[in-house]
Amino acid sequence: xxxxxxxxxxxxxxxxxxxxxxxxxxxxxxxxxxxxxxxxxxxxxxxxxxxxxxxxxxxxxxxxxxxxxxxxxxxxxxxxxxxxxxxxxxxxxxxxxxxxxxxxxxxxxxxxxxxxxxxxxxxxxxxxxxxx
Length: 132
Known about the structure:
The protein is mainly beta. It has one helix at residues 111-125; strands at 7-9, 12-14, 19-24, 34-39, 44-49, 56-61, 64-69, 78-82, 87-93, 99-104.
């Protein structure tokens, strides 16, 4: 996945192959984090927390299943695994609110899934800081 072919705004994620309309729980008053996406083909993508914390989340992207885990509950680094348990992506937010993808295996994850999953990680792990 190349950053120059990815475009994100509040309600849409666009990559070279696909556009995804987005809905999420941020600012909705929900106690659980979730993101839903609908592709132009009508297929759906979903990420949601499992339990009371966001340390462990499950995802389903157009029928493919993933797990998004924080190896340490006190750090925001996240590892994404496919349904077979293979680690496919690592993310880590910076102090500036930018999400770094530190390790990715593009041959193991479709671009559209990688774009959606890392966007979800950015929402929950690297939120923009507001200063007053």
